[in-house]
Design goal:
The protein is α+β, with helices and mostly antiparallel strands. The protein starts with 11 loop residues before the first strand and ends in a 6-residue tail after the last helix. Strands 1, 2, 3, 4, 5, 6, 7, 8 and 9 form a nine-stranded mixed beta sheet that branches. Helix 1 crosses helix 2 and helix 6 crosses helix 8. It contains eight helices and nine strands. The relative contact order is 0.15. It is about 40% helix and about 25% strand.
Length: about 220
């Protein structure tokens, strides 16, 4: 029987810091979540890499988030006006779920596990990382964009790291890959770089043991 990760309809409040709140996002606000991520990708990648967003990209994101809801955990920071500021999503792989690292990069996850002689029970995808730094500036908070990013990572990786025999895979923009490295997360590149949304991107992985080693070193309060 497949494990169901998520059934909640309403957003669930996790913490409040200054004027912003961290939630686990429920199904009734999933469309808002997808649209926020699309808007942030369109803004940043158009400015940096001249990527022209298409309506089909938004429709595809909404469809993917909707279909993967019971296999995923969605986190979002919201402003005092209840508008999203930062997001992230962790998805457990099931038979009917194919991740972008597979169909965009041609990565065979089972082959990677075999080649690296890993003992893996769960495969997770980390994605939908987006932060609206301009909206964050309008809030009366001491939190920076980098701290928002780190806290989103802490919460999502805690979910993935519940099983030491898990494997996290992702498609990482070169800039995000460097930021993760600065935070102490050495994501291993497992394939050739490719253009995604106009941005040079790596297929990457982390094992559950590596995730938990990183989590154990984090002394900051998770909020």
């Amino acid at each position: 029987m497949e494990r169901i990760i998520n059934l909640q309809e309403k957003d669930s409040l996790i913490a409040v810091i200054d004027t912003i709140q961290l939630y686990q996002i429920g199904s009734e606000n999933l469309k808002e979540f997808s649209q926020f991520v699309y808007k942030m990708y369109a803004h940043h990648y158009k400015k940096k890499y001249k990527w022209i967003p298409r309506e089909e990209d938004l429709i595809s994101m909404e469809k993917s988030d909707r279909e993967q809801f019971n296999s995923s955990v969605y986190f979002g920071y919201k402003s005092r006006e209840n508008l999203l500021i930062g997001t992230i999503k962790a998805t457990l792989k099931k038979e009917n779920i194919i991740f972008p690292i597979e169909y965009e990069f041609g990565i065979d996850i089972k082959q990677i596990i075999k080649e690296k002689e890993l003992e893996i029970e769960e495969v997770w995808h980390l994605g939908r990382l987006a932060i609206d730094s301009e909206r964050l500036k309008k809030e009366n908070t001491t939190l920076t964009s980098r701290e928002i990013l780190k806290n989103l990572l802490l919460h999502s990786l805690r979910v993935i790291g519940e099983n030491d025999k898990s494997l996290m895979i992702a498609e990482s923009d070169v800039l995000i890959h460097e930021i993760f490295k600065e935070l102490g997360l050495e994501m291993k590149i497992i394939g050739a770089q490719k253009e995604c949304l106009g941005s040079p991107t790596y297929p990457v992985m982390l094992t559950g043991i590596e995730i938990n080693n990183w989590l154990a070193k984090q002394m900051e309060l998770i909020y």
